[in-house]
Design goal:
single chain, mainly alpha, 2 helices, about 90% helix, rod-shaped
Length: about 110
């Protein structure tokens, strides 16, 4: 009977040791997995930041080009307006100058 009890106690101790070893191994595996996940997350964050920077830079460049184009078009439209209405502009200038330079007592 004593021999059986000793075998049972021995088996329990061995089982306890195996369970403890398995727990330690599982903890090590979990720790490695956590580190691997953290590395991948860092890499993904870095890649996302670089992509966002590239997108923002491209959007700024496109905005700059569009602004330059709109400014150029506005200048051209202004020049066309002046050319198309040159006669009316000169006539208005002449009237204004005439009113400024004419004596107050002169009749229209």
């Amino acid at each position: 009977m004593r021999e059986m009890v000793e075998k049972i106690l021995s088996a329990e101790a061995e089982a306890k040791d195996r369970v403890e070893a398995a727990r330690k191994e599982a903890a090590a595996i979990r720790s490695e997995a956590d580190l691997a996940v953290e590395r991948r997350l860092q890499e993904a964050r870095k890649a996302a930041q670089e992509k966002v920077r590239d997108i923002v830079a491209a959007a700024r460049e496109q905005g700059r080009r569009e602004q330059e184009s709109l400014v150029r078009e506005a200048k051209e439209a202004g020049q066309r307006f002046i050319q198309e209405h040159a006669g009316a502009i000169e006539e208005t200038i002449a009237r204004v100058v005439g009113r400024i330079t004419r004596p107050e007592y002169a009749e229209d």
